[in-house]
User: Which sequence fits this backbone?
């Protein structure tokens, strides 16, 4: 398949610029296993779609206040997006400026030189904090790194709303947005229904918004993200399987983490980078269903959900969502997708 196979028309007015007043008030498009057509529900209906002993796997990453605005020694403005803190005083970042600063250049924030450019790592700039470490700089001067399709500046409300209620491990520059729909009341309802919960960590990088620039998907170089799947999570998945229940990933980030940790054939603890590119032809090893938001046309995340729920069914579901005026992307509505189960003889070749 090619990038162009994943195109769909999306009116700009369907791209949500603000969250709804209540997290769980969004709509939920449901595509059950074996169903050719989606159904329209509310996110508050999610507990009814789950069964006692199902295991929901959440990504507990926390979004950093990773966008900083600085001034070069020449007076030019620089926008920084901290991609990763390598050590307390060193970070890798995307820089946007009329002219890229050279190694040795100092960048001022609030009138004081606070950052020095020390080199390049491919597309990223390596930076050194001159006084405070980067955690302190982001806390004092940082802004929430809203996605590029949200065309407004960040506001005070984004500090909490572009963060899941269970976020705790700082390191992401984008939210695991499927989790934004969960509030404490909904989590309590899931607990009361007997649905189990577990967590992984995957620090979402800015590469999640990087467009696929080649039509031949074999030529696409997937971005890298750091993740951790621990031994306790692996044990919980095994217990879920033993009692005949389902593993349900909250978000494509949880899917990517679980499938990376199972790349050797069975789920094992994993800590490190992943460049796993999931597209039609991939055979899922861990995940039975997922909760996810809607994704950009021609994106790797759209390719992932097409691999999971079936290309024709998924693209038809997206057309349905556009026709029914669902809200798209980070602050938009959600989907509940069950994995498409087919006769193995009819599946495409396994993609690792």
Assistant:
């Amino acid at each position: 398949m090619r990038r162009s196979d994943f195109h769909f028309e999306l009116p700009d007015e369907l791209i949500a610029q603000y969250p709804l007043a209540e997290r769980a008030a969004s709509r939920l498009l449901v595509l059950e296993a074996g169903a050719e057509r989606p159904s329209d529900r509310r996110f508050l209906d999610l507990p009814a779609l789950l069964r006692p002993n199902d295991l929901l796997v959440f990504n507990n990453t926390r979004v950093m206040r990773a966008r900083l605005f600085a001034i070069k020694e020449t007076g030019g403005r620089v926008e920084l997006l901290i991609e990763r803190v390598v050590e307390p005083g060193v970070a890798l970042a995307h820089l946007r400026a009329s002219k890229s600063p050279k190694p040795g250049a100092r960048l001022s924030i609030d009138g004081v030189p606070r950052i020095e450019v020390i080199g390049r790592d491919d597309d990223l700039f390596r930076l050194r904090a001159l006084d405070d470490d980067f955690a302190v700089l982001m806390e004092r001067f940082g802004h929430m790194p809203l996605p590029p399709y949200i065309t407004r500046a960040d506001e005070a409300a984004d500090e909490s709303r572009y963060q899941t209620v269970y976020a705790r491990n700082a390191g992401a520059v984008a939210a695991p947005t499927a989790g934004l729909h969960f509030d404490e009341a909904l989590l309590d309802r899931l607990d009361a229904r007997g649905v189990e919960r577990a967590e992984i960590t995957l620090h979402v990088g800015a590469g999640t918004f990087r467009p696929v620039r080649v039509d031949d998907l074999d030529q696409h170089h997937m971005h890298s993200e750091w993740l951790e799947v621990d031994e306790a999570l692996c044990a919980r998945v095994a217990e879920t399987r033993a009692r005949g229940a389902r593993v349900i990933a909250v978000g494509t980030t949880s899917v990517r983490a679980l499938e990376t940790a199972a790349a050797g054939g069975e789920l094992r603890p994993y800590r490190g980078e992943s460049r796993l590119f999931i597209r039609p032809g991939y055979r899922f090893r861990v995940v039975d269903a997922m909760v996810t938001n809607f994704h950009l046309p021609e994106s790797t995340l759209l390719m992932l959900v097409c691999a999971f729920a079936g290309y024709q069914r998924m693209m038809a579901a997206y057309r349905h969502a556009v026709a029914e005026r669902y809200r798209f992307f980070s602050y938009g509505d959600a989907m509940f997708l069950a994995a498409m189960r087919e006769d193995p003889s009819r599946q495409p070749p396994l993609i690792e």
Notes: The radius of gyration is 21 Å.
